[in-house]
Every structure is written in structure tokens, then in C-alpha cells.
Amino acid sequence: MIKVFQSWWKKEQKQTLPSLSKDNVPSHVAIIMDGNGRWANRRGLPRIVGHQNGMKAVKRAAIAADEIGIKFLTLYAFSTENWKRPKDEVDFLMRLPEEFLAIELEELIEKNVRIQMMGHPEELPKHTIAAMEEAMRRTKHNTGLVLNFALNYGSRREINDAFKEAAKGIAAGTLSPDDVTEEWIGAHLHSSELPDPDLLIRTSGELRLSNFMLWQLAYSELWFTDIYWPEFTKDHLFQAVAEFQRRTRRYGGLS
Ligand code: IPE
Ligand code: IPE
Ligand code: MG
Fold it and tell me: pTM to 2 decimals?
């Protein structure tokens, strides 16, 4: 049985891998991981089972991204608006990083993955932030894939915070209005250490950004799929990257 699976898997890999060009791999891929609840509902299961299975898709996406040669993978895990959900669901979601890291951290360390996060950590439960901090500390010297979790992240708030910082600096006389360039703004966002995403993926059929990286996605290629996040596999990432490689990015110029 295992042999049958292995030969099928090898065949699958042969079918999908060669279609990607090594020269044009997106450096930064960002994913809005959506549809966990609907995936569960469709099976008559509670929403949290969808989140649990979504966690397995996170692992698949990270391993596949690493394999393809993607350098930065940002995953939208919890938005500043997701606090509006029932407390039970929020509590469950806040336990997931610990659970994910307890199971996967050692393998991610072996794969040289560096874990980071963006968002507002000070509002997260202590146990959630403790798990994230430990993972960031233990992987901070790793030089492979940067796996960046957007956790309690909201783009308007991030931009608003940068505005406030500029206003304070100008009021204090430490910053001139001319200093507030696009570079300055980029450097004062949570993603300041990362390049802008080359490719944005959203699952679940929704065609919106839901307050995700509004500044940074200005010239990203967008790829939407109807599948729900728990169904996301390496193949979907390949499909998205293959589509990315067929696109011409013009940035307003001519190709
Ligand atoms: C994405 O799945 C996970 C989070 C937003 C935390 P959802 O929970 O939004 O699932 P749907 O969109 O309700 O199906
Ligand atoms: C976006 O999904 C947030 C995350 C994936 C973490 P939502 O499910 O919260 O987005 P809306 O409410 O459908 O726009
Ligand atoms: Mg959703």
C-alpha cells in the first residue's frame, strides 16, 4: 500500500514540478486562509474542526513553499476584526499557534525555517504570545523560509499607526513632512522587514482583501480559488505559482 502511494506521489510530483520555472519564483507569497468554517459546516461539523484541519494545511503550505524556493510566506491567521466572533471560537483560535508549534516546531527548525509574526501581540492571550515568542526566539538565526504569521493584524490600523508616528515626529520637530516618503511609510509598517508580496492567494471563493496588507499589495498578483483552506495542498500552491509565472507585471509601464 505504501509503495503504491509512493509511486503515485512521485508521479504526481513529476507532473507538477517541471511546469514551474526556477527563475521566476515569487519571493514573497501571502495567503488569506479562508473557508475553515464553511469546510466544517459542509460536513456537519463544528467550525472549530475546520480550524483544526486548517492547521494541517498551514504545514502543507509551508513545506511546499520551502520546496519551491519561496523566501517569505505570510499567512493571515487572525484579523483585528476576528475578535467579533463568538468567544469560544476566538479562544480556540488563540490555542492553535501553541498546538501547531508543539507539533511542528522541531521539523520547521530542521528545515531551517524562521518564524515571525506581524500584528498587535500585546492584545493576544499570554499563552499565545508565549508560544509565538518561543518559536521566534528558537528560529531567529535560521536562514531558510521566513514563515510570517499575521496574528491580530489589521492593515488600516497598521497604516493609521504609521500616520500617528509621522504626526508625532513632525509635532516634536524630529521629522519633516518631506521625510514622510513611501519608503518611510513602508519602513513603519509591520512588514518592514519583508519585501512586498509578489503573489496573494485567497481561498474559499471570496474576492476581497478583508483588511489585509492594503499598502503592500499595491502591485501584487492576485490568485483566488474556490477551495476551502483545509483542502489546500501543495498542488494548489503550484497552480498559483504557475499562474503567477504566466503573468506579465508592468507596474504601470509597458512590457
Ligand atoms: C478562516 O476561516 C480562518 C479565520 C478567519 C480565523 P473562517 O473561519 O473565516 O471560515 P469561513 O469563512 O467562515 O468559512
Ligand atoms: C479574513 O477572513 C481573515 C483571515 C483569514 C484571518 P475573514 O473570514 O475574517 O474575512 P471576511 O469576514 O469574510 O471578510
Ligand atoms: Mg472567513
Answer: 0.93
